[in-house]
Amino acid sequence: MSRVVIVGGGAAGLELASILGRSVNCQDEVILVDGETHHYWKPRFHEIAAGTFDNDLDTLCYFSHGAKNGYMHYQGWMTDIKREEKQLVVSKPNGETDFVNYDYLVIAIGAISNDFATPGALEHCLFLDSPEQARSSWLQISSLLRSGHQRAINIVGAGATGLELAAELAKVNAGLEPNPHAAKLKINLIEATDRVLPNSPLKMSHQAQLMLEKYNINVMLNTRIASVEQQGMTTSDGLTISADIQFWAAGIKAPNWLKNIGGLESNSFNQLMVQQTLASTLDPNIFALGDCAAIPQGEGVMVPPKAQAANRAAVHLAKSLTGLMRGKQLTPFIYKDGGMVVAIGHNFAISTMMNDKLILKGRVIRRLYDTIFRLHQKTVSGVLTMSRLIIAKRLKCIFQPN
Ligand SMILES: Cc1cc2nc3c(=O)[nH]c(=O)nc-3n(C[C@H](O)[C@H](O)[C@H](O)COP(=O)(O)OP(=O)(O)OC[C@H]3O[C@@H](n4cnc5c(N)ncnc54)[C@H](O)[C@@H]3O)c2cc1C
């Protein structure tokens, strides 16, 4: 009998727990450790922050899902690993410390925003790293919208996260225009490099920029933030950008406590170093995947921190780890990038395909963006449940007012 303990029920961990739970022998155990009670699809956190997220249809309860899919949910936060004893140290919701034994440990705790030690960022910015942070952002935005007058929101980082958040807020703002008491939002999207979506092809950045301007979003390129104050930010050129609410969405890193945890190797972003098999470089019984792992693909190329990469690594590890438990060798994870889709509001998205050779945009591509979430739902809950959720959502959109 083997016990697989997976830490983190996000894009990677939940898929792995679901596939493994359904496929391992009944004497084997799959345990999913996550401090949350419900799973949220992280690429939709900006919708929670903007108040447009559907809590009923788009979340999943780990406890009941685990019962149907062959894994057990253990509610708690991982704090340490005792490698000698093969034990995970967990902080339970009541504050007590517990120890969970494992034969194989998989770490998939995701990443948090990287504030690059910018003075004041931690104190005065909102982050979209957890459902709780996203919900508390919505509370602040909601009260700002109700406060009337001209208001401003600063968003640092024009990567996918910052851009999707800016567009979602602009949409909410436009929807409230007929209400004379609602605040009018000025949204400043601040980027240190010379274009939005700096890691995407130039043409994609250009198309995204045009769309953002159409949404009246004030895009500030070549603008590096030196410090953040309570009511604004100061750039490296000494310019002050005032705002009522400020978000930080520039770059990611694994949390500081993960660095060298249990004596494992990690990189400068605190990500755990793994081999191409996803086994950690120093311990063959510990694996890592998703945003918290540095996964090599040969010649200095690493797997990017994307939902799609997290999903694919999970599907791969589920098969490879099942094989290992049946006496086979682990197999290397070879990542083939399927392109990138960035949503700008509810009716428009831009995507790259065919190794960035093809750039597509428009309403149909926006449906493709939703497909990535639906494929995740299919992997974790099956095609029937996914179809039922799509139908329920469509009906809700028709019969329920916005
Ligand atoms: C607003 C936003 C928009 C995004 N848009 C896109 C996009 O368009 N396309 C794209 O590819 N990617 C996008 N991303 C990035 C994408 O969400 C991540 O790459 C992906 O979710 C990483 O998956 P993961 O499984 O590694 O981590 P996550 O999905 O973040 O899951 C981590 C899980 O670990 C749990 N956890 C954390 N710490 C602990 C602990 N100590 N103990 C136990 N459990 C723990 C968390 O509760 C969570 O359930 C976006 C991210 C954000 C925030």
Would you spell out the secondary-structure blueprint of this structure?
Layout: E1 3-7, H1 13-23, E2 29-34, E3 38-39, H2 45-50, E4 60-61, H3 62-69, E5 72-75, E6 77-82, E7 87-91, E8 97-101, E9 104-107, E10 112-113, H4 121-124, H5 131-146, E11 150-156, H6 160-175, E12 184-190, H7 202-214, E13 218-220, E14 225-229, E15 232-235, E16 240-242, E17 245-248, E18 252-253, E19 272-273, E20 286-288, E21 293-294, H8 307-325, E22 340-343, E23 349-353, E24 358-362, H9 363-381, H10 383-399
Parallel strand pairs: 1-2, 1-9, 2-5, 9-20, 11-12, 11-17, 12-13, 19-21
Antiparallel strand pairs: 3-4, 6-7, 7-8, 10-18, 14-15, 15-16, 22-23, 23-24
Count of discrete alpha- or pi-helical segments spanning 4 or more residues? 10
Helix fraction?
Answer: 25-40%
Radius of gyration using CA atoms only = 21 Å
Alpha-carbon distance between the two ends:
51 Å
- CATH class call of the largest domain: Alpha Beta
Count every beta strand, where a strand is a DSSP E run of 2 or more residues.
24
Give the CATH H-level superfamily of the largest domain. FAD/NAD(P)-binding domain
Bound molecules: flavin-adenine dinucleotide
Residue-averaged pLDDT, rounded? 93
What percentage of the residues does DSSP assign to strands (E)?
Answer: 15-25%
Q: Strands of the biggest beta sheet: in what spatial order? A: 5-2-1-9-20
Low-pLDDT regions: none
